[in-house]
């Protein structure tokens, strides 16, 4: 079966839209469908991997094993929220001198790197902080009268 010719330009438009930083294949397929452009998963898969091979897109694979695709623009690193899964681009923190020292220490000729900062995004962090405060308040209000909480040394 031949691929409809509109899929490639539609995917390029999506990738350049800034709607998402890094798209999974499923997200790309769903976004095309929402725009009234139904496509097969295999077509999206093939076009995404061709775009990576041609150097137009970059492929990122996180711990969940699902590849994500982003435009291959200026190199950058990523922040990944461990709770909600959001992925955000941040400026690269490694300098040429760090690369040179790494090459000298290992003997490798380094051509690229991928760096992923992991933690909680501001929204999840705020949610986590408010949950922790609520839990602490609930524990303190359930304590029987007359009991003391021993302070633990640091």
UniProtKB/TrEMBL annotation:
GO biological process assignments: negative regulation of DNA-templated transcription; regulation of secondary metabolite biosynthetic process
Pfam families with a match to the protein in the record: FUR
Sorted UniProt keywords: DNA-binding, Repressor, Transcription, Transcription regulation
Biased composition (Polar residues): 126-135
GO molecular function, one term: transcription cis-regulatory region binding
Disordered: region residues: 126-154
Protein's UniProt name: Ferric uptake regulator, Fur family
Organism listed in the record: mine drainage metagenome
């Amino acid at each position: 079966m031949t691929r409809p010719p509109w899929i490639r330009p539609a995917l390029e438009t999506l990738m350049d839209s800034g709607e998402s930083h890094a798209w999974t294949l499923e997200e790309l397929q769903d976004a095309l469908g929402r725009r009234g452009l139904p496509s097969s998963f295999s077509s999206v898969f093939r076009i995404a991997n061709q775009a990576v091979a041609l150097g137009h897109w970059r492929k990122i694979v996180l711990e969940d094993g699902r590849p994500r695709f982003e435009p291959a623009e200026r190199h950058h690193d990523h922040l990944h929220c461990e709770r909600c899964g959001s992925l955000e681009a941040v400026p690269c923190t490694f300098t040429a001198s760090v690369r040179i020292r790494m090459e000298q220490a290992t003997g490798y000729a380094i051509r690229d790197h991928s760096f992923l900062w992991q933690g909680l995004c501001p929204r999840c962090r705020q949610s986590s902080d408010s949950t922790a405060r609520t839990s602490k308040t609930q524990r303190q209000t359930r304590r029987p009268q007359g009991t003391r909480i021993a302070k633990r040394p640091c």
